[in-house]
Amino acid sequence: MSKIKVKYEFPMHCLSEILYGYLASAEGLSEWFADEVEERGDDFYFTWGGVTTEKATLIKYKPESFVRYKWEEDKDKKTYFEMSIAVDEITEDLSLNITDFCEPGEEEENRIYWENLVEVLTIKLGAG
Questions:
Q1: Cα–Cα distance, 29 to 82 (Å, whole number)
Q2: Which of 9, 37, 11, 10 is nearest to 22 (CA)?
Q3: How does strand 52-62 pair with strand 43-48?
Q4: Radius of gyration of the chain from its Cα atoms, rounded to whole angstroms
Q5: Angle at 6 between CA 67 and CA 34, to 5 degrees
Q6: Residue 37 pLDDT > 70, yes or no?
């Protein structure tokens, strides 16, 4: 069965260039996304608990706008996870938009996972 696309929007209270650093660099990602992140070219190695390491490749990006990663273990060519920065043209409010894919029936678990990650990110940004 195919994975389904899920999208989330989180209001953020920081500058887009600062937020982008937390989305697109190993140093930034290791602050909130994984315990340790190593960057080798376009490949990122995410480690949790010193035990589990997963590889994702940066497949598309636009500075200060978005990053899109593809997990190596995910064989479905259409799946990825993307973190994009949106700025409202009128209010100039900034939000972090997440696009991810999960198994059918795991939408709630996936939403909670991202909410917890973004909560940590918000604390790191000093915007919580």
A1: 13
A2: 37
A3: antiparallel
A4: 14
A5: 50
A6: yes
Secondary structure (3-state) at 117: helix
Q: Residue 33: left (phi > 0), alpha (psi -120 to 50), or beta?
A: alpha
User: Could you tell me the maximum CA-CA distance found in the chain, to the nearest angstrom?
Assistant: 46
pLDDT tens profile 51-75: 889 999 999 999 999 999 999 998 8
Strand order in the sheet with 81-87: 4-12, 94-102, 81-87, 66-71, 52-62, 43-48, 36-40
- Say how many C-beta atoms besides its own lie within 10 A of residue 33's C-beta: 19
Residue 22 tokens read as 């937390």
